[in-house]
Model the fold of this input.
Amino acid sequence: MSQSIPVSWSTVEANIPQAPVQIDKLPNYDLISLCQAGVRPERTAFAELLRRYQSHVDKVLYHLAPDWQDRADLAQEVWIRVYRNIKRLNEPVKFRGWLSRIATNLFYDELRKRKRVSSPLSLDAPRTLADGEMDWEIAGDNPSPDEELTTREFYEQLQEAIADLPEVFRTTIVLREIEGMAYEDIAEITGVSLGTVKSRIARARARLQSQLQNYLDGH
Amino acid sequence: MTLKFESQNDNKPIFQEHLSTNASHVNQPIGIIDMLKRDRFELLSAYLDGEVTAAERRQVEEWLANEPEVQCLYRRLLKLRQEVRSLPVPPAQQSVEETIEQVFTRVNRRVHLAIIGGGTAIAALFIGTMSGGLLNPQSAQIAQAPEPLVAPNETLMVALNAPVVEIPKAAVATPENAIRQTELRQYRQDNVN
Done:
């Protein structure tokens, strides 16, 4: 008995200082599994997870809600939901998609709240056109064919063109292109039919490519 | 090129109309969209996402093999996708370390609230149970003989001339009224004894 006690103590002491050093070198899969262990995620592991994926959350929220000034609060709420529910994620390899989904659901929850609050007569309200109301052939302010766009200028134009899409088209194309969601998932999350998703994505692309085709063809 | 694309068209009369009205705009930048029928563009777009049936895929691949316009449009859509995905995101409104700090502050606050709330509920439940079941001899009698459930209360109510609080009809040990019941019972006992 007296011999076994110092052995077990030395083992514990040897393990403690190694843990923080290794955490930032853990592969994503192991890190996620570690966050799923225990009653609640351990702080060091969860903080590392947040560090690795925060840019993804920022990106998703930015594209979904480019003009919201409180995206930082939303991002915090995303991570609180992750913290509480990470144990429910069955396959750690699907963490990124799961995280996108949490951010998207939160965005829609918030959007619904804000729509209820905002006055329907407000001239500032974003255009929420029905599907039939966005033409396929909308002529934008196209640059003349000989105009050369720098990459930065192009991104500004692309940004502007995306922001200028009616809301349902913008969010649908973001779910597809930024989050890589399948049509079925987009239909479920936006509460429309598969056909509507297909049509919205196509129309958003039609408009973007017609507005930016000089650059798209030239590079 | 319009005609060539159209020659692949099977049974799409609407496209014919579209073609006749837009043929003069072929050289305009947005001409291709004008020329393409909606469902064709939709199909190409869905193909890009891998959201087509086997038959649709064969159809699109046939266009891609034979139609320079479709090839051009497809290249453009691929480029658009690539650029949308690599769009720069403005700097975050809050640093990562700040976010971590805030998240843990909020999580811990919620956990503390839950512990306090849960603890209060458990304590109330415990007090309610103890006062309603184990410590109260009247309740013990009720447990043995359910029939006089109302009678002891009525007797007590008679004994109490001026109850300080409203007497509940049944002793329910919910967190909201458990404490009040405990006080009440204590009051009753004090007065009876």
